[in-house]
Protein backbone atom coordinates (compact mmCIF):
# COMPACT_ATOMS: atom_id res chain seq x y z
CA UNK A 1 0.00 0.00 0.00
CA UNK A 2 1.42 3.37 -1.06
CA UNK A 3 -0.09 6.83 -0.69
CA UNK A 4 0.64 9.83 -2.89
CA UNK A 5 -0.45 13.26 -1.67
CA UNK A 6 -1.29 16.21 -3.93
CA UNK A 7 -0.55 19.26 -1.76
CA UNK A 8 -1.53 22.74 -2.94
CA UNK A 9 -0.19 25.04 -0.20
CA UNK A 10 2.37 24.47 2.58
CA UNK A 11 -0.19 24.89 5.38
CA UNK A 12 -2.69 22.24 4.20
CA UNK A 13 -0.96 18.90 4.44
CA UNK A 14 -2.16 15.42 5.34
CA UNK A 15 -2.57 16.11 9.05
CA UNK A 16 -4.05 13.06 10.78
CA UNK A 17 -3.94 11.08 7.50
CA UNK A 18 -0.16 11.12 7.86
CA UNK A 19 -0.47 9.83 11.43
CA UNK A 20 -2.70 6.97 10.26
CA UNK A 21 -0.24 6.03 7.50
CA UNK A 22 2.78 6.21 9.81
CA UNK A 23 1.10 3.94 12.36
CA UNK A 24 0.69 1.30 9.64
CA UNK A 25 4.10 1.72 8.04
CA UNK A 26 2.52 2.96 4.81
CA UNK A 27 4.92 5.11 2.74
CA UNK A 28 3.75 8.54 1.61
CA UNK A 29 5.11 10.54 -1.34
CA UNK A 30 4.18 14.06 -2.42
CA UNK A 31 3.55 16.33 -5.33
CA UNK A 32 3.82 19.86 -3.91
CA UNK A 33 2.36 22.23 -6.47
CA UNK A 34 3.85 25.26 -4.71
CA UNK A 35 7.33 23.91 -5.53
CA UNK A 36 8.94 22.51 -8.67
CA UNK A 37 7.17 19.24 -9.24
CA UNK A 38 6.51 16.28 -11.48
CA UNK A 39 3.34 14.24 -11.49
CA UNK A 40 3.57 10.63 -10.32
CA UNK A 41 3.12 7.61 -12.52
CA UNK A 42 -0.11 5.74 -11.83
CA UNK A 43 1.90 2.66 -11.01
CA UNK A 44 3.67 4.45 -8.14
CA UNK A 45 0.68 4.70 -5.75
CA UNK A 46 -2.39 2.83 -4.55
CA UNK A 47 -4.23 5.76 -2.91
CA UNK A 48 -4.12 9.28 -4.32
CA UNK A 49 -5.05 12.00 -1.81
CA UNK A 50 -5.83 15.54 -3.01
CA UNK A 51 -5.77 18.06 -0.18
CA UNK A 52 -7.29 21.51 0.37
CA UNK A 53 -6.22 25.01 -0.56
CA UNK A 54 -7.57 28.56 -0.81
CA UNK A 55 -7.63 28.60 -4.61
CA UNK A 56 -10.57 27.62 -6.83
CA UNK A 57 -10.63 24.96 -9.52
CA UNK A 58 -11.75 27.85 -11.74
CA UNK A 59 -8.40 29.63 -11.23
CA UNK A 60 -6.59 27.67 -13.95
CA UNK A 61 -5.42 30.94 -15.51
CA UNK A 62 -3.55 31.75 -12.30
CA UNK A 63 -2.48 28.24 -11.29
CA UNK A 64 -1.23 26.48 -14.40
CA UNK A 65 -0.96 23.16 -12.57
CA UNK A 66 -4.73 22.88 -12.00
CA UNK A 67 -5.49 21.34 -15.44
CA UNK A 68 -2.64 18.85 -15.06
CA UNK A 69 -3.93 17.86 -11.63
CA UNK A 70 -7.41 17.40 -13.06
CA UNK A 71 -5.93 15.20 -15.78
CA UNK A 72 -4.05 13.08 -13.21
CA UNK A 73 -7.22 12.63 -11.14
CA UNK A 74 -9.18 11.63 -14.24
CA UNK A 75 -6.50 9.11 -15.20
CA UNK A 76 -6.36 7.69 -11.67
CA UNK A 77 -10.14 7.33 -11.48
CA UNK A 78 -10.23 5.75 -14.94
CA UNK A 79 -7.53 3.28 -13.86
CA UNK A 80 -9.66 2.27 -10.84
CA UNK A 81 -7.19 3.72 -8.35
CA UNK A 82 -8.41 4.71 -4.90
CA UNK A 83 -8.77 8.49 -4.66
CA UNK A 84 -9.60 10.68 -1.66
CA UNK A 85 -10.29 14.41 -1.96
CA UNK A 86 -10.53 16.88 0.93
CA UNK A 87 -12.18 20.32 0.47
CA UNK A 88 -10.48 21.69 -2.67
CA UNK A 89 -9.54 18.09 -3.37
CA UNK A 90 -13.22 17.11 -3.31
CA UNK A 91 -14.02 19.93 -5.72
CA UNK A 92 -11.19 18.77 -7.98
CA UNK A 93 -12.64 15.24 -8.05
CA UNK A 94 -16.07 16.67 -8.94
CA UNK A 95 -14.43 18.78 -11.69
CA UNK A 96 -12.47 15.76 -12.98
CA UNK A 97 -15.78 13.84 -13.19
CA UNK A 98 -17.29 16.62 -15.31
CA UNK A 99 -19.29 18.52 -12.69
CA UNK A 100 -19.47 22.27 -12.25
CA UNK A 101 -17.72 23.96 -9.30
CA UNK A 102 -18.99 27.39 -8.26
CA UNK A 103 -19.47 29.80 -5.36
CA UNK A 104 -21.84 28.54 -2.66
CA UNK A 105 -24.57 30.85 -1.38
CA UNK A 106 -23.00 30.72 2.08
CA UNK A 107 -19.42 30.33 3.26
CA UNK A 108 -18.90 27.58 5.82
CA UNK A 109 -15.99 28.18 8.19
CA UNK A 110 -15.82 26.56 11.60
CA UNK A 111 -17.09 23.51 13.46
CA UNK A 112 -20.46 22.82 11.86
CA UNK A 113 -22.87 19.92 11.49
CA UNK A 114 -23.15 17.57 8.54
CA UNK A 115 -25.77 14.83 8.28
CA UNK A 116 -26.01 11.67 6.23
CA UNK A 117 -28.21 11.72 3.15
CA UNK A 118 -30.71 8.92 2.61
CA UNK A 119 -28.12 7.24 0.40
CA UNK A 120 -25.48 7.84 3.06
CA UNK A 121 -27.60 6.08 5.68
CA UNK A 122 -27.83 3.04 3.42
CA UNK A 123 -24.19 3.10 2.29
CA UNK A 124 -22.31 0.08 3.62
CA UNK A 125 -19.06 2.05 3.44
CA UNK A 126 -20.39 4.37 6.16
CA UNK A 127 -21.53 1.66 8.58
CA UNK A 128 -20.59 2.77 12.09
CA UNK A 129 -20.06 6.39 11.01
CA UNK A 130 -22.46 8.67 12.94
CA UNK A 131 -25.56 9.88 11.15
CA UNK A 132 -24.66 13.42 12.24
CA UNK A 133 -21.18 14.83 12.87
CA UNK A 134 -19.66 18.16 13.86
CA UNK A 135 -16.76 18.70 11.46
CA UNK A 136 -14.33 21.42 10.48
CA UNK A 137 -15.44 23.39 7.43
CA UNK A 138 -13.45 26.00 5.53
CA UNK A 139 -14.87 26.67 2.08
CA UNK A 140 -16.81 29.17 0.01
CA UNK A 141 -17.44 27.04 -3.07
CA UNK A 142 -19.49 23.95 -3.83
CA UNK A 143 -20.10 21.61 -6.76
CA UNK A 144 -22.87 19.89 -8.65
CA UNK A 145 -23.09 16.21 -7.91
CA UNK A 146 -21.23 14.35 -10.67
CA UNK A 147 -23.13 11.78 -12.71
CA UNK A 148 -22.91 8.27 -11.31
CA UNK A 149 -21.94 9.31 -7.79
CA UNK A 150 -23.64 8.64 -4.44
CA UNK A 151 -24.25 11.66 -2.16
CA UNK A 152 -23.26 10.82 1.42
CA UNK A 153 -23.59 13.98 3.57
CA UNK A 154 -25.35 17.35 3.43
CA UNK A 155 -25.54 20.46 5.62
CA UNK A 156 -27.87 23.37 6.13
CA UNK A 157 -25.51 25.71 4.28
CA UNK A 158 -24.25 23.40 1.53
CA UNK A 159 -26.16 20.51 0.01
CA UNK A 160 -23.24 18.48 -1.32
CA UNK A 161 -20.78 17.66 1.46
CA UNK A 162 -19.47 14.26 0.39
CA UNK A 163 -19.92 11.69 -2.35
CA UNK A 164 -18.55 8.36 -3.55
CA UNK A 165 -17.86 7.25 -7.09
CA UNK A 166 -17.81 3.49 -7.25
CA UNK A 167 -16.30 1.92 -4.16
CA UNK A 168 -12.90 3.64 -4.07
CA UNK A 169 -13.29 7.33 -4.93
CA UNK A 170 -14.37 9.50 -1.99
CA UNK A 171 -14.82 13.28 -1.91
CA UNK A 172 -15.14 15.09 1.44
CA UNK A 173 -15.88 18.81 1.52
CA UNK A 174 -14.90 18.96 5.20
CA UNK A 175 -11.66 18.42 7.14
CA UNK A 176 -11.64 15.31 9.32
CA UNK A 177 -7.84 15.33 9.11
CA UNK A 178 -7.25 18.64 10.92
CA UNK A 179 -4.83 18.58 13.84
CA UNK A 180 -4.27 21.34 16.38
CA UNK A 181 -1.11 22.32 14.54
CA UNK A 182 -2.66 22.27 11.07
CA UNK A 183 -5.70 24.19 12.31
CA UNK A 184 -3.52 26.92 13.80
CA UNK A 185 -1.65 27.15 10.47
CA UNK A 186 -4.92 27.36 8.54
CA UNK A 187 -6.25 30.14 10.76
CA UNK A 188 -2.94 32.02 10.56
CA UNK A 189 -2.81 31.89 6.76
CA UNK A 190 -6.54 32.40 6.04
CA UNK A 191 -7.54 34.74 8.87
CA UNK A 192 -8.75 37.34 6.34
CA UNK A 193 -11.63 35.00 5.40
CA UNK A 194 -13.10 35.20 8.91
CA UNK A 195 -15.54 37.98 8.08
CA UNK A 196 -19.09 37.85 9.47
CA UNK A 197 -21.43 35.29 7.95
CA UNK A 198 -24.31 33.07 9.01
CA UNK A 199 -22.04 30.01 9.02
CA UNK A 200 -18.69 31.61 9.85
CA UNK A 201 -17.31 31.20 13.36
CA UNK A 202 -14.79 33.37 15.17
CA UNK A 203 -11.11 32.53 15.35
CA UNK A 204 -11.51 31.62 19.03
CA UNK A 205 -14.46 29.31 18.35
CA UNK A 206 -12.51 27.56 15.60
CA UNK A 207 -9.36 27.03 17.64
CA UNK A 208 -11.22 26.03 20.80
CA UNK A 209 -13.44 23.65 18.86
CA UNK A 210 -10.61 21.25 18.16
CA UNK A 211 -10.43 20.21 21.81
CA UNK A 212 -14.10 19.24 21.70
CA UNK A 213 -14.31 17.64 18.27
CA UNK A 214 -10.81 16.78 17.02
CA UNK A 215 -10.45 13.34 18.58
CA UNK A 216 -13.88 12.18 17.36
CA UNK A 217 -13.13 13.46 13.85
CA UNK A 218 -9.87 11.50 13.79
CA UNK A 219 -11.71 8.37 14.94
CA UNK A 220 -14.14 8.61 12.02
CA UNK A 221 -11.30 9.44 9.61
CA UNK A 222 -9.42 6.33 10.69
CA UNK A 223 -12.50 4.18 9.98
CA UNK A 224 -12.77 5.69 6.50
CA UNK A 225 -9.08 5.24 5.69
CA UNK A 226 -9.07 1.67 6.99
CA UNK A 227 -12.05 0.85 4.75
CA UNK A 228 -10.32 2.36 1.74
CA UNK A 229 -7.24 0.31 2.59
CA UNK A 230 -9.34 -2.84 2.81
CA UNK A 231 -10.86 -2.11 -0.60
CA UNK A 232 -7.42 -1.49 -2.09
CA UNK A 233 -6.07 -4.73 -0.65
CA UNK A 234 -9.08 -6.64 -1.96
CA UNK A 235 -10.55 -7.39 1.46
The helix fraction, in percent, is 25-40%
Order of helices and strands: EHEEHEHEHEEEEHH
What shape does the CA trace take? globular
What multimeric state do the chains show?
A: single chain
Q: Return the CATH architecture.
A: 3-Layer(aba) Sandwich
Summed over residues and divided by their number, the pLDDT gives a mean of 97
Q: What is the gyration radius calculated from CA atoms?
A: 16 Å
Assign the structural class, choosing from mainly alpha, mainly beta, alpha/beta, alpha+beta, or little secondary structure. Answer: alpha/beta
The biggest beta sheet is recorded as: 9 strands, mixed
Q: Beta-strand percentage?
A: 25-35%
The CATH class label is Alpha Beta
Number of helices: 6
CATH topology category name: Rossmann fold
Spatially, the strands of the biggest sheet line up as 2-1-3-4-9-8-7-5-6
Distance between the termini: 13 Å
CATH superfamily: Class I glutamine amidotransferase (GATase) domain
Question: What this model shows, in words?
Answer:
This protein has helices at 16-23, 65-78, 88-96, 118-122, 180-190, 203-232; strands spanning 3-7, 28-32, 47-50, 82-86, 101-116, 132-143, 149-154, 162-165, 169-172. The protein is built from six helices and nine strands; from the N terminus they run βαββαβαβαββββαα. It has a nine-stranded mixed beta sheet with strand order 2-1-3-4-9-8-7-5-6. Helix 2 packs across helix 3 and helix 5 (180-190) crosses helix 6. The protein is globular, with a radius of gyration of 16 Å. By secondary structure, the protein is α/β, with parallel strands linked by helices. The protein has one domain: Rossmann fold (3-Layer(aba) Sandwich).
Amino acid sequence: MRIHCLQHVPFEGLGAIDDWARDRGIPVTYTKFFERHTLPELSSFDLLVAMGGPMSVNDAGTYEWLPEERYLLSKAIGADKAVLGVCLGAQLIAWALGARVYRNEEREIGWLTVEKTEDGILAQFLNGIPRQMTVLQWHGETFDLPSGTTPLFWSEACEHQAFMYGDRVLALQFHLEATQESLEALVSNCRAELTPGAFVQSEKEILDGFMEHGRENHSQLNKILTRLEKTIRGG
